[in-house]
Task: inverse folding
């Protein structure tokens, strides 16, 4: 009984670790996308202010 409890505990542990890893990866991807979007907006604004291009 005790061994079965340990096994299910370990299994749950590995699932939660995997889920948190996926979440971190997802979070990083989202942050990267937001950063890229922010960068492109900044670059476009800089370009527009330098060359007077209206959107």
Result:
């Amino acid at each position: 009984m005790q061994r079965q409890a340990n096994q299910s505990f370990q299994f749950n542990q590995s699932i939660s670790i995997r889920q948190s890893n996926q979440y971190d990866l997802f979070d990083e991807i989202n942050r990267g996308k937001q950063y890229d979007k922010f960068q492109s907006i900044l670059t476009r604004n800089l370009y527009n202010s330098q060359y007077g291009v209206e959107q």
Observations:
- The chain has a mean pLDDT of 79.
- The helical segments are 2-51.
